[in-house]
Amino acid sequence: MRSFTSFLVAVLLPIVLACENPDTHSCASIFSASTALVSSFCATYTASAITATAAIPSDINSACSGKTTSISEACSCFVTSETAVALVATTSTTEAKTTAKTIIPTTLATSTIKATSVAKVTSSAVAVATTADAAAASAGVGGTIISTLTGGAGVGGTTCTVTAFADISASVSACSNVLLSGITVPASTTLSVAVPTSGALLFAGTMTVEYTPDADYTPIVLKGTNAKVAGLAGAVIDGLGADYWDGEGSNGGTAKPDHFIKLSDMTSSSFSDIKIINWPTHLFEITGCTDMTMSQLILDNSAGASLGHNTDAFDVSSTDGLYVSGATVYNQDDCVAVNSGSNMLFENMCCDGSHGLSIGSISSGVTVSNITFKDSSVVNGENACRIKTDAGDDDSTVSDITYSNIYVSNITDYAIDVQQDYENGDPIGDSTTGITVSGVTFDSITGSVADGGYEYYILCGSTSSCTDFTWTDIDITGGTSSCSPAGDECPST
What we know:
Blueprint: H1 4-16, H2 26-32, H3 36-45, H4 58-63, H5 68-79, H6 82-90, E1 104-106, E2 117-118, E3 128-129, E4 159-162, H7 168-174, E5 177-181, E6 184-185, E7 191-195, E8 200-204, E9 206-209, E10 220-224, E11 228-231, E12 236-238, E13 259-264, E14 270-277, E15 282-287, E16 290-300, E17 314-317, E18 319-330, E19 336-338, E20 341-352, E21 357-362, E22 367-379, E23 383-390, E24 396-411, E25 414-423, E26 426-427, E27 435-449, E28 454-459, E29 466-472, E30 475-477, E31 480-484
Parallel strand pairs: 4-5, 5-8, 6-9, 7-10, 8-11, 9-12, 10-13, 11-14, 12-14, 13-15, 14-16, 15-17, 16-18, 17-19, 18-20, 19-21, 20-22, 21-23, 22-24, 23-25, 24-27, 25-28, 27-29, 27-30, 28-31
Antiparallel strand pairs: 1-4, 2-3, 25-26
């Protein structure tokens, strides 16, 4: 008969620690038994890169379909987190306590999570309520570059300071604030945390993610409801990108984690006050979130200027309600790429070296609506304001998109770009009409392009697949322009 402790582990660990349920997940099942096989394996696997002496046993490899992400999460959840199991087994009768020597209960200065709500509207207007201290650029000057961060704070209550990766899981269920101080994420190991409701996950010092050449690997996965993720003053997360960069990104060469940080199914939560450097390819995968706020971020991949590729900052999908404010980004691909979702506002963004503030590319069967980019700057990049849909795809709509007060400088390709001819990530010049783009506003777009660049470039499949475009106060110099076919989507001359 299965013990009551095992039952609690199976039921509560998936909730508390973002673990899979061993009753329904084969990989979790083999690890939850905590046999000598998995215990000895995880002791090596989560501590260093895989070597000949740390090969994956065939039973584990089969149960987990050979996926390193599943294996590392299972090790963290069910084997290296023995203190977490003990905590879960006693939560029904006693207040959770931990004996891990690196978990130090302390007090921490607190602040109220400043709520930002994105109103869900059906028109092209975006209604947003923000607090008075939200950073906003002055009209006409684009975004404000952030060079330093003052740091965030916790949410009150007990703070556990954690200095060893293996102790993270236990602290999540014990404390209101979990402070990761100088943590190293071992190779092939995922930092997977479901932040407690109304709790905080905090970062201090520099957290390094060790080299893991695996396209299926996601180093950091975060979930939570009414949760706060923030850095204290000086907090940095380093992805060691130089160990991966080869000029090919996710298209080839050295295998690289496809996304560095995944924010999954987070509701009414925030992510702020962190500097992130040297991510291998795409940084944030934001998916399935509702009413999410991200602010005061320095995202610096400038060290990859020559060899970094596909280093998108914000990749967004299946999200309803996202507010991003005060982000300075240095990268080599899209600053923002919204691939599906609705009701989003990006403001006070500074994007240097990027491929722009982008919608898409949009494939079949998705909806993108009510997205606003405002009071931002895009400099030294290929594109700035960009909407791209995939040629030959259909049954998708892009509507109510606004670009307002965007400053551009030294743009090599397109300052304003709408194209319905993408295939395999690149324009092919043959646009199609299966995806409609409507209700697009370009307002107060100013600045200049580099020699050979386009001030605007519009290539639609027809005048019916691109409709209701509004152009006001466009003042871009230094390039040429093109709009086809001639219709309402083209600016008046």
